[in-house]
From TrEMBL:
<dbReference type="InterPro" id="IPR006311">
    <property type="entry name" value="TAT_signal"/>
</dbReference>
<dbReference type="InterPro" id="IPR052025">
    <property type="entry name" value="Xyloglucanase_GH74"/>
</dbReference>
<dbReference type="InterPro" id="IPR015943">
    <property type="entry name" value="WD40/YVTN_repeat-like_dom_sf"/>
</dbReference>
<keyword id="KW-0624">Polysaccharide degradation</keyword>
<comment type="similarity">
    <text>Belongs to the glycosyl hydrolase 74 family.</text>
</comment>
<keyword id="KW-0326">Glycosidase</keyword>
<feature type="signal peptide">
    <location>
        <begin position="1"/>
        <end position="22"/>
    </location>
</feature>
<dbReference type="GO" id="GO:0010411">
    <property type="term" value="P:xyloglucan metabolic process"/>
</dbReference>
<keyword id="KW-0119">Carbohydrate metabolism</keyword>
<keyword id="KW-0378">Hydrolase</keyword>
<keyword id="KW-0732">Signal</keyword>
<protein>
    <submittedName>
        <fullName>1,4-beta-glucanase</fullName>
    </submittedName>
</protein>
<dbReference type="GO" id="GO:0016798">
    <property type="term" value="F:hydrolase activity, acting on glycosyl bonds"/>
</dbReference>
<dbReference type="GO" id="GO:0000272">
    <property type="term" value="P:polysaccharide catabolic process"/>
</dbReference>
Length: 732
């Protein structure tokens, strides 16, 4: 989910060695409860889209039929429920302070103890991110204990599709190994309660950010891949047979096509280790790769590469899985192959001959139509590094892409095996007051979707004409809800409008030149007669805003509009629009339909942080300012003056929904804090009092992007998450 916004291809393709690593005492992985917060019970579910993010790893349990786990780069881990044929999320309990742990770097299971599960969590290895942690479960992820590390992990960094980097030692179930990006190889002898740097592992701690790329057991030997072996001439695969002494594996391949060991799988029947290689860790940036196998009993290496990259057909190799039931049967995946399209290759004779599965594949994406990407047929996929073969069913193969998991039971017919797994990063939400859809969403990587039902993936898939990668703006005319506009990163236009409430779209007839490289938020006034489009580059550079009064046929610059501010339409008066300048802490207002803006209130919070100006529905000039760390401010005079709301300590995002029975003001929904805990709150009395409506089991990490209530159903609320899709809650 860390794709570049520059093109559809890119969007669809986002301590020292001796330092002691003392672990925190094992404790339940849950949030702090606010002592004074009132709570009301809610039922929480995902709005169904189906996948929509990079599945970085899939692991079948080797000794339990139907048990599998999946990891994602920013959306947590999941357990497969074979009877229900769906995934169960395991990390929704992680709260606001632990958002960095929603990225799962690696998964490990204990073959001898089927209920044991280990997760290495940590999304970013940057200085501003928290350290990683290992979560340990004795009940397959129903509950966890947690060990905090003193090192960082990088589940959303380059190389996140390699692995697994976490391994239970087959000789001793109490011993675990963890490969890190910057701090070498770690070892635990007490099931993850404490960790220390492993003695005898030759490479120095990594500066480039790959470090140990994989750990795999082959018989009683352990192998570790090293992703920082220079130009491909230094050893990058190491082995230990005693758990103490590590040595470079003799005779291993070298060169650019074998620079980075990506994944490895052991064929127990033939005692051969298969390793996929590339010239970069991926998922982007690979142009060369190979597949080699090692006969572990003789030390003989054999090049078994199915197809060699070259010319315009550049790619690396990614996933690899060995059939536990049929010796010599192995499946590998290509990765970052754009010219000829990625595929899976399968061999039944130890790599002498390979068959590509792409050409005979038949896809059924009727359950998740967005996977057609606006075309007639779905693609085989991209970013294929997660690959698994069911140890109890040789024809059950699953592979992950940048958007979904595909599975087959016959090696020909494929369908998304994705129910329950939702990983979208959500940017905008609209709940229309009338019409078929209760929700329209703007999303990272997959544009805009029109949700006819909350319990099924949108039948129209992604909004097309044009097709976007990431949506940057979404707005509806309050007095004319059939009119909706959107903006985003697209190859064939960056803005579009709909006259049927978001069912179908047409591109703006024209757009400012800056739109292609810096599309930003977009707004329409109450009656849909005026558009305001703001331009902000992905690197943060702000540009002048533009206005259109002819549905996007022509545009004019608004010199008086504060650069980079998000325009807000007055819901009752089409001549009024507003904006908040975070640089100066000033509210701007227009009374001439956006032709000009003047400063109104000043002296409000400013600088770095999170700010959101929201207009209360059905009322002219009723504005609410949500401010990270500073709470809420309200204006009832169109932004001329603001009063601080004393019931709120911090606010990240604010939205409105249908009023409670007998109430004269819309319900207010807020992600913020009234006491000590950051949570989801609702107020039915104009913010005089609040009730917490989520609980410690439903927190989803960072959820501060946007929130909105349903204008037709009191109590229903929609929450944007950064990796767990759209959550919606209703009172029990």
């Amino acid at each position: 989910m860390n794709a570049s916004p520059l093109s559809r291809r890119a969007v669809l393709a986002g301590a020292a060695a001796g330092a002691a690593l003392a672990a925190a005492p094992l404790a339940p992985a849950r949030a702090r409860a606010g002592e004074n917060a009132r709570e009301t019970p809610y039922r929480w579910r995902n709005v169904v889209i189906g996948g929509t993010g990079f599945v970085t790893g899939v692991l079948f349990h080797p000794s339990v039929r139907g048990l599998a786990y999946a990891r994602t780069d920013i959306g947590g881990a999941y357990r497969w429920d074979d009877r229900a044929a769906r995934w169960t999320p395991l990390l929704d309990h992680l709260g606001w302070d632990d958002w960095n742990l929603l990225g799962v770097e690696a998964v490990a299971v204990d073959p001898a103890h089927p209920d044991r599960l280990y997760l290495a969590c940590g999304t970013y290895a940057q200085s501003w991110a928290g350290n990683g942690a290992v979560l340990y479960s004795e009940d397959r992820g129903a509950t966890f204990r947690r060990t905090d590390l003193t090192v960082k992990l990088g589940a959303n960094e380059d190389g996140r599709g390699t692995g697994e980097r976490l391994l239970v030692d087959p000789r001793d179930g109490d011993t675990l190994w963890l490969g890190t990006r910057h701090d070498g190889l770690l070892k635990s002898t007490d099931r993850g309660a404490t960790w220390a740097v492993a003695d005898g592992f030759p490479p120095s701690p990594s500066a480039s950010g790959q470090g140990v790329t994989l750990l795999v057991a082959a018989g009683r030997a352990l192998y570790a891949g090293w992703g920082d072996a220079g130009g491909g001439t230094a050893p990058n695969l190491y082995r230990t047979t005693d758990g103490t002494t590590w040595q470079a594996v003799p005779g291993q391949p070298s060169g650019a096509s074998a620079k980075v060991p990506v994944r490895a799988a052991y064929d127990r029947g033939t005692r051969e280790l298969y390793v996929t290689y590339a010239d970069a860790p991926g998922p982007n940036g690979q142009s060369a790769g190979s597949v080699h196998k090692l006969a572990t009993t003789t030390g003989t290496w054999t090049d078994v590469t199915p197809a060699r990259p070259g010319g315009d057909d550049t790619f690396g190799y990614g996933g690899v899985a060995a059939d536990a039931r049929r010796p010599g049967t192995v499946v590998v995946s290509t990765n970052n192959r754009w010219a000829a399209v990625d595929t899976l290759y399968r061999t039944t004779d130890g790599g002498r001959r390979w068959t590509s599965l792409r050409e005979s594949a038949v896809f059924d994406v009727s359950e998740t139509p967005y996977l057609k990407w606006g075309e007639d047929e779905p693609k085989f996929g991209w970013w294929i590094q997660a690959l698994a073969l069911d140890p109890f069913d040789s024809r059950h193969v699953v592979y992950g892409t940048g958007a979904t998991l595909y599975g087959t039971r016959d090696l020909k017919n494929w369908a998304p095996q994705i129910r329950g797994l939702e990983e979208t990063s959500v940017r905008q939400l609209i709940s229309p007051p009338v019409g078929e859809a209760h929700l329209i969403s703007g999303l990272g990587d997959i544009g805009v979707m029109y949700h006819e039902r909350l319990t099924a993936s949108p039948s129209r898939g992604m909004a097309t004409n044009p097709l976007f990668g990431t949506a940057t703006g979404l707005a509806q005319a309050v007095a004319k809800p059939s009119y909706v506009v959107r903006a985003g990163w697209g190859d064939h236009g960056n803005g579009a409008y709909s006259n049927d409430g978001g069912r179908t779209w047409a591109p703006f007839e024209a757009q400012p030149d800056i739109a292609k490289s810096a599309p930003g938020p977009i707004a329409t006034n109450a009656d849909g007669s005026v558009l305001l489009w703001v331009f902000v580059h992905w690197d943060g550079t702000k540009y002048p805003a533009y206005r259109s009064a002819d549905n996007g046929a022509s545009w004019s610059e608004i010199a008086s509009f504060p650069k980079g501010a998000t325009p807000v339409a007055d819901p009752a008066d089409p001549t009024r629009l507003y904006a908040y300048d975070t640089d100066t802490g000033s509210v701007y207002a227009s009374t001439d339909s956006g032709r000009s803006f003047t400063v109104r209130a000043t002296g409000l919070p400013s600088g770095d942080g999170q700010f959101e100006l929201v207009a209360a529905p059905g009322r002219s000039g009723d504005l609410w300012l949500s401010v990270k760390w500073n709470g809420l401010y309200r204006s009832t005079d169109g932004g001329a003056t603001f009063t601080k709301i004393t019931s709120c300590r911090a606010s990240y995002t604010l939205g409105f929904g249908k009023a409670a029975d007998g109430a004269g003001y819309p319900a207010i929904y807020m992600v913020g804090s009234t006491e000590d805990i950051t949570a989801v709150h609702r107020s039915d009395d104009e913010a005089e009092s609040w009730v917490r409506i989520n609980d410690d089991r439903h927190q989803w990490g960072w959820i501060g992007e946007t929130i909105t209530g349903d204008p037709r159903v009191h109590g229903r609320v929609y929450i944007a998450t950064n990796g767990r899709g759209i959550q919606y809650g209703e009172p029990v």
